Amino acid sequence: MSSLTLHSCDGQPLMLVSPRGARNLPYWMTETKHNSIPKEADSIYKELLNTDLFSIYRTAFEKVTGQTLALIHPDIMSTPEEESARCMNDFCSLMLDTKVCESRCTEHTLDLSKRIDQQAFTASCEANVTTTLIPINTKVGIVAYIRSGQVRTNEKEIDPDFFLKISEAMPPHVSRDVIMLFDAARVYTKDEYKSQLTLLGAFALQLSDLANNLLIKPAPGSGGIVDITKHYIHVKLTEKISLDDLAENAKVTNSYLCKQFKKGTGLTVVEYINRHRIELAKELLTSKNVRIIEIAYETGFQSLSQFNRSFHRYTGQSPTEYKSTAELSS
């Protein structure tokens, strides 16, 4: 069975079973393109970062695990600032906000990328915070990295020498907050962390497949098919949309449309429609004082039960819970 190896923080290999079944991995997953950034990498990276597939997965992963998931450019220094600084760890966030660890964090990510030999790599920084970098491999080389972790994986206290070094650059009350936030941070067990890496490894394989599809020059008109279909969906989002309607509008068969749409977006047509309907519903739930059943039909769903199932799938909450949470935070 196909597999990839992730190196865990204790140096032991962690096997990842490929979800694509029992077959050999393609050559681009077995050959190392180390320290070589493909010329296509920048455009592929930007496309991956802006896909609904990445957005949906990131939202779900961060909500369930409490860990950060960022997509890092293969040229580490070219990563957008908001992506590079993305962090859900209060300790790390404070260190980044005070600029104490900004360069250290970048250097640590850069160091991890240099130590990657086609497989993922996990290591701890000076602050005893564990981070993992997983490459998105394609037939031309690495086009992105998934960065996750930024968590504690052992009970060790913050290194006194490191704390002394950073405390010199911050006010006394801030240095006290640093210790407090570090001590309050959740400590993940090795099994917990490895399980989360397995999820990320499977997702990395999905992104690799999508990236390889993006590298393939589309057949004449296929790029247009995706754009035409997206436009039709957004125009008709609040109405009933059938696959027959979409295929007829794009002047192609149903099966060809489904194949090209999945190749171009990483999502099925139904997933894409429901995702955008839920985003519209979230806006309506927080801006309009109307019943949930009215919002369900107003956003194109054919029943309240279908709306509730889809809403929970994409947000992890029921519409009522989401509305209550939004009202409390406003």
Automatic annotation (TrEMBL):
PROSITE patterns: HTH_ARAC_FAMILY_2. GO terms for molecular function: DNA-binding transcription factor activity; sequence-specific DNA binding. InterPro entries: Homeodomain-like_sf, HTH_AraC, PocR_dom, Tscrpt_reg_AraC-type_HTH. It comes from the Bacteria. Residues 227-325 form the HTH araC/xylS-type domain. Pfam families: HTH_18 (PF12833), PocR (PF10114). Keywords: DNA-binding, Transcription, Transcription regulation. SMART domains: HTH_ARAC. This is HTH araC/xylS-type domain-containing protein.
